[in-house]
Amino acid sequence: MRGGREIAAVTGASFELRPGECLALIGESGCGKSVLASALLGLLPRNARATGRAFLGDLDLLAADERTLARTVRGRRIGLVPQSPSAHLTPVRTVRSQLEETVRELTGLRKAGLREAAEAAAERAAFPATHLDRHPHQLSGGLAQRAATALALVGDAPLLLADEPTTGLDRDLVDRTVDELRRHADTGRALLMITHDLAAARRIADRVAVMYAGRIVEIAGASAFFGAPGPRHPYARALLDALPERAFTPIPGMPPELGDLPGGCAFAPRCARATARCGTLPEPVGGVACHHPEEATACSN
Ligand SMILES: Nc1ncnc2c1ncn2[C@@H]1O[C@H](COP(=O)(O)OP(=O)(O)OP(=O)(O)O)[C@@H](O)[C@H]1O
Ligand code: NI
């Protein structure tokens, strides 16, 4: 809601995520990625509401009450690497003390084991042991990011939501961080990684979901998406073509205001393939919501 009006930040998002799998959620700023993650955790602002179903095992996350979410879901069944780590860390406590508390809560470890486990968690997220006794305001953005990732990894939750987990990290650390997240999936857990970093997505994702103006417009296997035959939705194709290492062609125009979406396909005003048909909303077919998708070829997965 903005100015008393209701705005659909995410619409009709439908996807599955299996144990052992990494799904990368990509799309321009403001398209609804973080709102989707917040809805799964029951962390939407009070003026927002979510409808539909989102099953984690037998539990419908959208129907669960706050007590269940707070006691059994957040941290335990779903880990979160938040988009703004500094806002998520407790300002008055050192990183070590926050890690130790989380380890104690989630694993029941005590005393000596606690210290060791906290240090191991820091190590997993490449957070330097020399900085463990610092407070959040003494950390750079990249270090706060790593502290938040360490905290999120502690419980080995069956589902990890990582919202821009590599912001502020240089390339080596990006690779190291996403490889650690990938290991989380490789041990039979699920990972939803929200990212602007398509190289990081390509490195670890099994599948890619592309969001535009609050809708998932394409879901595809990562190797088909990033390699051959490439994305099938014109927006997804344009996102990749905008990369400096590819065509470096910016997407013309701007994403629409969510409060002022066109009636049909929201990408049509920016799309070279658009025709009159795009005035009606395309339903997803074979993972692609477009009236004029690029051809699927035999090697797509
Ligand atoms: N509390 C709120 N009240 C009103 N609108 C909101 C609120 N939170 C998010 N929005 C709107 O919802 C839309 C989606 O926001 P969201 O944060 O999910 O985008 P995002 O895809 O995560 O972007 P980014 O890549 O910049 O993080 C935006 O247009 C944003 O302005
Ligand atoms: Ni976001």
From TrEMBL:
One BP term from GO: peptide transport
GO molecular function, one term: ATP binding
Membrane topology: Peripheral membrane protein
Pfam family name, one: ABC_tran
Stored InterPro entries: AAA+_ATPase, ABC_Ni/Peptide_Import, ABC_transporter-like_ATP-bd, Oligopep_ABC_C, P-loop_NTPase
Record key words, sorted: ATP-binding, Cell membrane, Ion transport, Membrane, Nickel, Nickel transport, Nucleotide-binding, Translocase, Transport
Subunit text: The complex is composed of two ATP-binding proteins (NikD and NikE), two transmembrane proteins (NikB and NikC) and a solute-binding protein (NikA).
Name of the protein in its database record: Nickel import system ATP-binding protein NikD
Native organism: Streptomyces telluris
